[in-house]
Every structure is written in structure tokens, then in C-alpha cells.
Amino acid sequence: MRAVQIDRHGGIDVLVLRDVPEPVPRADEVLVRTVASSVNPVDWKTRAWDRGPAFPMTLGWDLAGVVAHSAVPGFSPGDRVVAMSGQLSTGLGTWADLVAVPARILTAAPARIPLVDAAALPLAGLTASQALERVKPVPGERVLVTGGVGGVGSLAVQLARRSGARVDALVSRPAHVTAAREAGAHLVTDRVGDLPPGAYDAVLDTAGVHPGPALAPGGRYVSITDDPLPTDLPNAAKHQVREDADGLADLVTLVDARELRVRVGAYLPVGDVRRAHELFEAGGMLGKVVLTF
């Protein structure tokens, strides 16, 4: 079978699509035939930076596919499934034709959207929902999401609105204002200086942007980025996504209820994985880059 691997860190030239042995699932694993995955910031950072498991390293966190073999109750051949694998810590990358997935991180895929679109949900959706659990927005509060049309930011805007809080968004360029409003953001701007001073009870930073004076004194600030936390925000906190099949199942329910929209900006075959990384790193795309298998 095919897998996207790297033997060293570096530019897109280190990405290799090669033949590797098919995995043999253990008793607690389900063998999934991959239909699609997606490109996330952690993927290019793992490729480019000195981080991750041993070489040769199979990349990828998102998985959408069809069960090929299972001895685990609750999963049968032909089932449509999704999962998020913590590739950095577990070494289990999903950019392969077949993946032996621990059943504990696997859940049924959305029924309403194609599997190729569902591949954009796991990591971004879990990051958004888990980070918002730390932000703790409540009715009557005003919340800012930076990077409001990104893979995580767009989902975070939609999920935060469900709390009853007013949600605003900061985007990177004027062309993205409409998309953020479509996601449910109230005030949308591409300039930090346009944000009202002292207006926000909480900020979810998905883009590495300091909110400046817009955060109210004592306000909550949660970042999902690799940037250092602002030293002038005493309540600042970092969040790193964790595997969570139950949380992913909740997101799937929202997608099927048409209460959460997943946006895809480009579909590329896995053989064009280098081009996929180029598109992702160029930025500015509305929606995620999906790899199809």
C-alpha cells in the first residue's frame, strides 16, 4: 500500500509517497481503508521542524474512511468512520491507504456529507471544541476568535455561538470578511486596531494574534498556536488538542443536524501531497486542503 512518509525534516521535497507493508491490526484496532485526510498546521511543522516520532515517519492526523476489517464490537466492514490520531505522540500517521486505528479514537462519520469532506472535521473540530471548553463562553459575554475563517477558527465561531455569547472574528484580509459573517460572526475585521477596546470577555487565538487592548481587564485568553503566550495577559493559557472519540461523535451529530458546517477549499490526490503543502503554506484559502486516496 501507499503511505506519505519523510526520512528527514525539511521542505516539501522530503515528502515521499512510497510502498509500505500493510498494517496488521491488533485485537483493539480496526483496519480502515482511507478515503481522505487533510493538511493541518501540525503536518507541515512536523515535516519542517525537528519534531515527531522516529524515521521513517508517516504523517497525518485526520482520517475519513471505510472499515476494511474489524474484530471490535461496534465496527463492521463497510462502516464509514472518522478519527483523529495524535501522530506526534503516538507515531500513528493517517496518510496511508490502510490504517490500523485504535477503536477508542474511532467514531461513525457524518451521514450528511461526503467522506472526503468529513476528513476536514476531526483535528480542527476537536481543537475548536476543546479550546472553547477552556474559554468557557456564556450567554451575554462577548468573545473574539482570531483567524475566524481558518480550519479551526471557522468551526470555533460556529461552536461559540451555540453558547449564547456574541462572537466576533478577526481575519487576515478583507476578502475573508464575508466568509466569517457566514459562519456566524457579528463584527468582523482584518485590523486589530478596529476592535473595540476592553470589549471582550474572552479571546480564542487560532492565528497567533495579540488582541491588544480589546481584551477586557481580567479577560480570558486561550491560544492554540505555537507562539509564546503574551506576557502582559495574566490569564493567558495554551491548549493542545487530545484524542477524543466521544467529542468527535458530538461534532458529527452537529454536522448531521446542519448546525456545523465544514468548509473545504481544495481537493488533491495523495500523489500531489507536495502541491497540497504548497497550497496550505501559501495561506489565504477559504477552507481546508483535503488529500484524497
TrEMBL record:
Gene3D superfamilies: Medium-chain alcohol dehydrogenases, catalytic domain, NAD(P)-binding Rossmann-like Domain. The lineage of its organism: Bacteria, Bacillati, Actinomycetota, Actinomycetes, Micromonosporales. Residues 10-291 form the Enoyl reductase (ER) domain. This is NADPH:quinone reductase. It comes from Virgisporangium ochraceum. SMART domains: PKS_ER (SM00829). One of its GO terms (molecular function) is oxidoreductase activity.
